[in-house]
């Protein structure tokens, strides 16, 4: 069960590893031990796009990031990502983003980058390995205080949902939203991870948010379908677990952290919650950062 989720994920990993090389379906199928036809059909079935289109969109998206972040010549970037000429790269870039590479480099703006696909999740891993998994032993959630300066948050606030899964199931395109925010990653507020989820409160109701924190002085474009809000400076109680194995331990880690985060009494540390006009943040970067829930507080009066 879910064998092909895992195999297609291996295809995705293979593409990412060989993204700047002259790749072919035959090379990938040889590496994975399946026929080219079967690989192609299953990739399309599990991702919704053809393998060829996926490689194309990932290459042009990776090239866009290098246009934004480096001073390499456009031609050198084009050749690096497998385009036969600068003209061919320009045609592909315009087709993907409706502007030329030169225009984007001169004035970077939010564009819908193609994000890395994920078709093999912790749930699939658990189903596959449940008869062989031993008990997970996790360390207790750490609690620390972090100051975050006043900033703007660009994204989507949805009062109809209060969790990650329901958010994406409520009419928001994960690929489009995440890809567009990834194109703005160079504006991320210093000290923050970039794309961030979390919770907000309105008239006693709890909603879910997803976006990116940027400096207060940011005055660039806001992507269509998103908005920005100014968030006051604040101290936050951070409930944190360090890096972990995403496939094996994701559910257990998140449960461990959130159990503490939502039941903790801040008066133990001389604080009280301050969530009326501020918002809670959720950081999820398993291998590089870990998992954390951040709740704003103020000194107890």
From TrEMBL:
SUPFAM superfamilies: Homeodomain-like. InterPro entries: Homeodomain-like_sf, HTH_AraC, HTH_AraC-typ_CS, MarA-like, Reg_factor_effector_dom_sf, Tscrpt_reg_AraC-type_HTH. Keywords: DNA-binding, Transcription, Transcription regulation. Residues 9-107 form the HTH araC/xylS-type domain. Pfam families: HTH_18. This is AraC family transcriptional regulator. It comes from Paenibacillus rhizolycopersici.
